[in-house]
TrEMBL record:
Residues 446-465 have a biased composition (Polar residues). GO terms for cellular component: nucleus. It comes from Cyclophora tenuis. Pfam families: PAS_9 (PF13426). This is BZIP domain-containing protein. Keywords: Chromophore, Flavoprotein, FMN. Gene3D superfamilies: 1.20.5.170, PAS domain.
Amino acid sequence: DLEKDLQDMTPEEKVKANRDRNREHARNTRLRKKAYLEKLKSTVDELCRERDTLVSERAGAASLMVEIHNTRTEVLMSFFALRSTYEKQRDLWSSILDESCFSCVMPVTPYRSFPASEVQVSKCQRTILGIDGMISDTASLHVLLNSLIDRSRYPAASIQFRYTLVTEDAVVAGNQMMARWVMSTVNATQFGARMEVAKQGMLCCKFNSAHKIIGLELMFDVMAFMLQLKQAAGSETFSVVPNTVQTCQRSFSSPMVMTLAERPYTIVQVNKLWEDMTGFRAEDVVGKASCRILQGQETDRSAVEVLMSSVRFKRPASASLLNYTRAGKRFRNYLNVYPLSTDSKITHYVSLTAHVDMIDNNGAVGSGTLAGATQSTSMPAHALKPAAEGRPMAASAQVAAPLASQETFQHVTASGQTRLHGVSYIAPQPITSGATMATNILPHSPSISNATPGDFGSNQQSKPC
């Protein structure tokens, strides 16, 4: 029909028909192109929106990661700040540590006090459980560093130290962070030490969703730090700090007295140096009295209460107390007290005198002698007399064998020397999940917290050493 129509058309009509057909084809082509362009534009717009959303999500995730990293870094810095200042308020510690499952793993440190129950001999490490365990470990660290002070010249001084957390090369994976850290004293030489001491190592910290620490592993070279402590103290030898009753059954080069860890803090053992320092014989005090027999009118009750605060919570402590000999002579002794374990339970305390000053009737220091001692009495405690064996314990105070014997700790120390000598950093071990670990929380009893020095027992056997 179309061909017939074309045959019937005049030339002018044929030209017009071709022109109309071409115009229709061109119009349809333009419509198709327009539809294609609109679809292409819609696709591009959709892709741009998806790109912008993805970029925004990535930026948000990166910002969140940075915020989480900064928050957790601040938590770690807060942890080290509390540790360096020996903060005793549990609420501050609980703001950064998860009370339900916190644990801290570190190498065995024979140069300072720690509970024998924390030791894992096979791994040459110890595990600190709970906030109270960490506060006790912090107390132990401060007692150690304060032992570097020359008490004959600086009787009231205190060592300050600081931590540095190196975050530039920190590794973050999920809820864990690994970073380098450095601890160093800042005023040890100012108070008589031969040198400042420092240790560096690695840490692996595990956080919960609230950014509280649930697991912490500290790694450092134990033997290198022990060598620094010896050099700073100017000592040729280094004694292992006792942490069980059994490890106290040896000679001490300073006055030693062991008491029960509970009221009335009865004396169960003394050595000859303690007898010479105080004038009391072992048979007069063992099983019969507490160290309150050394206190008198001028004894600082507030200093005794500060010491008692640590004793009540079974923490290591140090104190400078003005005491009296049996003859009534005054002397000031700087002492370190350490909790002792029996079968994983703290049952006793041992007090080791680090320095003694004799005070005469006019208040002058160093003008007399202590009990039977012949030396000037402004002197280190070990200068009183040669080391002597400890006096026998009271029969009523005999205890079962402790969890770890002295030989065990010698083995731990030897293993530490073999494993840690010359090693700056130790590869971290996987942190055990703390979901089932129990905390060691001591109740805050108002009757205990508000007690006065005279409240511990109804007689003169109520004082700690």
